[in-house]
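#onboarding

Welcome to the new folks! Below is a worked example of what a typical request in this channel looks like: someone posts a single protein sequence, and someone else replies with the predicted structure as tokens. Don't worry about understanding the tokens yet, we'll cover that in week two.

Example request:
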Amino acid sequence: MPGDQPFASILIRAHNDETWIERTLQGVFAQRTDFLFEVLVCDDSSTDRTREIAARFPVRFIKRPDGAYKPGRTLNTLVNAAQGELVVFNNADAVPLNGDWLSSLVKPLRDTPDRPVFTFANQLPRTDARALVRKDHARAFGDGKVQATWRFFFSLASSATWKRFLIDSPFDEEIQYSEDIEWTWRNSHREIDPVTVVYCPDAQVEHSHNYTFGELARRFRGEGKADAQIFGDAPCLLHEIIGAGRETLRDWLYLQPHPGSWSEALSAPLRRLVQRISHWRGMRDAVQKSRSGQ
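Example response:
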């Protein structure tokens, strides 16, 4: 690619992703496009073979920002280093599933080059994904009909937009979770040229996690804190418990025709309670911090 200006820059954040990064980069470099692209990798101090594996590919390494990890700060660093007009975010563990992932992801941007648009891909569960992880992915992604009924949904894990929008309006460098939701919500509600979020079901990557209860608790507590900061939501434990009950009923209905996964029915109520109570705790943390003026 020397001497040629890439049209798109694929930005990859990595941390201890040796399990996935080779497949991810193989998928990225197998893309069929009518434009040039570059690949930038920012490795967040991995202690495994992530960087060694990535170095086998023609990527450009970007030094991680100094200090404690802040997702917005790393994202802004990558965006500023990008040479392409388009920036494509793809997690090191989000594996493109075909050679048209990139073209499908950027098509809405190329079709409307003057409009502020942010696209995101279809994330399919891995082959080892638990049944309820598959169910959650089908609701969140799939044909997009369920997510369209939610207040707001977006995922930066595999997504794309024009670089100029991110230069004009950088990611928040203080928020620790849901930095992608904060950016798209903030910019989709501005008065002038609001950003449109577009789901691209044909742009497919493999990306899912079989979280332990402890991992679920940490993730949802962080997301609860972010939701209070972004949306101004107030914590309500009763609302969360009712939500856990409704989701458990959906879990049982999903599992009923899948006898091989009935064992998950027993843990489903606890799983949903861990998620929702942790979310409530995160919101409570944010409200208490705001009231204390910290």
